[in-house]
């Protein structure tokens, strides 16, 4: 059973998230906070909290600086950003700084519940926008180099990571066990020298013309 902290300074939105959690998410305890100081207070009392849903613009955040400090002081607790704006630069910067996910406030209740449950399974949640190809200048690893380093199944998993699929989604589509997916993801990160599945997904999207058969 999970401990979740909902941190947002807008009572109506906070109540809406609380309602989604109470109705659709299996949890032991749900706490709330209206500013960053209250988040620290809640985590001091519940250091084993599993997930903080953290409003990007609430008092005390100072942009992503609040995320940096929170991850530094409570590294074992997953943090997902809540924001009305999901521009790609901010999403990727948040992930780079240690966020486990980035949730748009425009998500419907069922999608929000799915995102929270995905995060509680230890998976990353990102809006589809963040997986689209970037216009920034990047070095694209040739497809042949990637294929040579991965097995055929690992390459299939990589392409699905590029679509933002969760481990459960990948397992269903490839008709394999979820534990097997986790093994493949770990192998992909190791072989391609990547830090996380977000980087793997971005790499997959930079491979030209790739569609999973």
From TrEMBL:
<dbReference type="GO" id="GO:0000160">
    <property type="term" value="P:phosphorelay signal transduction system"/>
</dbReference>
<dbReference type="InterPro" id="IPR011006">
    <property type="entry name" value="CheY-like_superfamily"/>
</dbReference>
<feature type="domain" description="HTH luxR-type">
    <location>
        <begin position="143"/>
        <end position="208"/>
    </location>
</feature>
<dbReference type="GO" id="GO:0006355">
    <property type="term" value="P:regulation of DNA-templated transcription"/>
</dbReference>
<dbReference type="InterPro" id="IPR051015">
    <property type="entry name" value="EvgA-like"/>
</dbReference>
<feature type="modified residue" description="4-aspartylphosphate">
    <location>
        <position position="55"/>
    </location>
</feature>
<dbReference type="InterPro" id="IPR001789">
    <property type="entry name" value="Sig_transdc_resp-reg_receiver"/>
</dbReference>
<dbReference type="GO" id="GO:0003677">
    <property type="term" value="F:DNA binding"/>
</dbReference>
<dbReference type="Pfam" id="PF00196">
    <property type="entry name" value="GerE"/>
</dbReference>
<keyword id="KW-0597">Phosphoprotein</keyword>
<protein>
    <submittedName>
        <fullName>DNA-binding response regulator</fullName>
    </submittedName>
</protein>
<feature type="domain" description="Response regulatory">
    <location>
        <begin position="3"/>
        <end position="120"/>
    </location>
</feature>
<dbReference type="Pfam" id="PF00072">
    <property type="entry name" value="Response_reg"/>
</dbReference>
<dbReference type="InterPro" id="IPR000792">
    <property type="entry name" value="Tscrpt_reg_LuxR_C"/>
</dbReference>
<dbReference type="InterPro" id="IPR016032">
    <property type="entry name" value="Sig_transdc_resp-reg_C-effctor"/>
</dbReference>
<keyword id="KW-0238">DNA-binding</keyword>
<dbReference type="InterPro" id="IPR058245">
    <property type="entry name" value="NreC/VraR/RcsB-like_REC"/>
</dbReference>
């Amino acid at each position: 059973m999970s401990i979740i902290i909902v941190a947002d300074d807008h009572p109506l939105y906070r109540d809406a998230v609380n309602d989604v959690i109470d109705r659709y998410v299996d949890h032991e305890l749900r706490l709330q906070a209206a500013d960053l100081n209250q988040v620290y207070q809640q985590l001091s009392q519940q250091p084993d909290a599993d997930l903080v849903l953290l409003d990007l613009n609430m008092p005390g955040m100072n942009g992503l600086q609040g995320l940096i400090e929170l991850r530094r002081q409570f590294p074992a607790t997953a943090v997902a950003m809540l924001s009305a704006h999901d521009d790609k630069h901010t999403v990727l910067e948040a992930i780079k700084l240690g966020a486990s996910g980035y949730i748009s406030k425009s998500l419907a209740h069922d999608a929000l519940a799915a995102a929270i449950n995905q995060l509680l399974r230890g998976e990353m949640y990102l809006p589809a926008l963040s997986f689209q190809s970037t216009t920034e200048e990047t070095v694209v690893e040739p497809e042949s180099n990637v294929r040579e380093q991965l097995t055929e199944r690992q390459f299939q998993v990589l392409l699905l990571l590029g679509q933002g699929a969760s481990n459960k989604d990948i397992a269903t589509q490839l008709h394999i066990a979820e534990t097997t997916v986790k093994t493949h993801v770990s192998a992909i990160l190791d072989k391609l020298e990547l830090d996380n599945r977000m980087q793997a997904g971005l790499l997959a999207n930079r491979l030209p013309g790739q569609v999973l058969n």
